[in-house]
């Protein structure tokens, strides 16, 4: 722009004034709506960083065994009857490596037990007036369940405890095994890279 031209200088000044007034009017409108306008002290205004989009992947899993029990206190989906499908998947984190003595402490429920098994607890669904929930652990435990009944009982108890904690119910420990390894129609589960950041999956 030719700064020596007084007409151009006046026009440029008017444009800046108009933009300033428009900006102030927009700020007042934002504040009146209960929001805080974004302001920057930088000469070249920086756009706030946006969080990365959460990418979800399908959770592939294999059914292993299914048990049925009752809600003694509270209900999920308006029914007290429940089936829990215990499944395994490579996508679930492995339990930490530990000495067998530490694993047995967890099986026995010792107060100083530190070994823990990550487990995914799915959303409840209704099937034939029964609430069905999938509980999924890492596939490395499947062979141990076949060889060691204590491992299977531990995973059963873990499933019950996690469901109780997540859905605020009390479940009967007098459960029975279903004839099918998976009760109901197979559910579709999804996970993201942050799904297993916390112990409450």
From TrEMBL:
Record's compositionally biased regions (Polar residues): 33-42
One of the Pfam families matching this protein, by short name: PIH1
GO CC aspect terms: cytoplasm; R2TP complex; ribonucleoprotein complex
Taxonomy, superkingdom: Eukaryota
GO BP, sorted A to Z: box C/D snoRNP assembly; rRNA processing
Region feature (Disordered): 30-53
InterPro entries to which the protein is assigned, alphabetical: PIH1/Kintoun_subfamily (IPR050734), PIH1_N (IPR012981)
Domain (PIH1 N-terminal) ranges: 70-188
Family: Belongs to the PIH1 family.
Protein name: PIH1 N-terminal domain-containing protein
Upper taxonomic lineage: Eukaryota, Fungi, Fungi incertae sedis, Zoopagomycota, Kickxellomycotina
